[in-house]
Amino acid sequence: MEEQGGVRAGGPGARSSATAALARAGAPAIVVADELETRYRSGDTEERVLVLGVLDRIAAEHAAPDLVRSVGIDLVRDALRTNDPRLVAAAMGPFAGRHLGDHDWRHGVVKLVFMGVPLAGVARLDERADDELARMAEDLAEEREAAGRPIPDDLRALLPADASLEKGR
Amino acid sequence: MRIFDPHIHMTSRTTDDYEAMYAAGVRAVVEPAFWLGQPRTGVSSYLDYFDAITGWERFRASQFGIRHHAAIALNPKEANDPRCREVLPELDRYLRRESVVAVGETGYDSMTPEEDEVLETHLDLAKRHGLPVVVHTPHRDKKHGTQRTLDVIANSGIAPELVVLDHLNEVTVDLVAERGCWMGFSIYPDTKMDPQRMVAILQRLGTERMLVNSAADWGRSDPLLTAKTGRAMLEAGFAEAEVDHVLWENPVAFYGQSGRLDVTPLPGFELGGEAELFEGNSILRGAAAVPVTAAAATVTGAN
């Protein structure tokens, strides 16, 4: 959708206009990176979710993706520090699946478990789930069990095959 | 029952909470510096916050008969944001304030190299200022994070009795007990720790070096869970003196190491029945029921 004079800032259609503006940005990487960062930092939560949602496509399409990737990772890490499940879930989309480092990515997955957000939305979960994530999941399940609290299905699915917890519970 | 809540974020709470806390026996609190839910993006919002928890909030608490002290630190999440790390050189002047009885809360969130560095900086600050330090243990990967925290503390050379590791649970408490640090527990409505689980830990490990707090903040939490834990202890057969040890004497001993702690009754609240002063006659309306300073009038004009 083209941004039109009739679109009021903050009004209906303004957010999708912003996304369209990002998609149009076929400009040099530095301009695109700057645009992403400005829109994220100056945006409200919904606008930030949109920016996180277009990161993967923009990084993939741009001819010189390094700078775009680096800004994208900063924004994803910022979103992962929040306590807003919409932002954390959006941060763990396809861009993070492809580019976020293993340590941050694992913490993002476990954070979603804490927030009760379904892991179905985590991009490349099966592919990237490794022994270290399974160890973290097992430790968390041990804490939940010691506390007499239930172990959610998403957490159970991350456990190592030989986990000694009472899996039937 | 007299209660000292050693970890509570009162800037997130209402005056109703202060009234209910006083009625439940709370006479002193420590408010560690914390994040706001919405991440900060720069130093100035940090400094305003430090001023708030050492200034306005301390005053607000005093109007309800509650002694308020603060702990000052850059919190672990924001340690990862270079814009926030700029606050580190500013910490010295806050750690010299009379109202500040500890460094904190510091520790790990995601266990990044940035968090390692900031934790070490905070432990150095605590040593240099001769202050206790409140160390948050992470929600994610807690066992591993607690172990790593203990290693960093040991390497720093700080005396273990100056350190509390907070938000412990059944799995992490033993690691801390054997190192000689204080053990902190945040009693929550449904997650970190509840009163019955807390009682079970006290039955197993005793009451020495144990600190029980509500860690109440802007999330689902309850500033009265310290009192409820005290009642659960009594019901489980602990003596009143043991409850007093955990809920009052222990935090007084821990933060008393700062040499700055004042837990004497506030003027106007010296006698036993002070809570009645509030009944149907909120001090927030500027009632003359308690002696207030001229500045108290500003409480009414909060908006």
Automatic annotation (TrEMBL), chain B:
UniProt keyword annotations, A-Z: Hydrolase, Metal-binding
One annotated GO molecular function: hydrolase activity, acting on ester bonds
Pfam families: TatD_DNase
Alphabetized InterPro entries for the sequence: Metal_Hydrolase, TatD-like, UCP005295
Keyword Phosphoprotein found: no
Family the UniProt entry places it in: Belongs to the metallo-dependent hydrolases superfamily.
Record protein name field: Hydrolase TatD
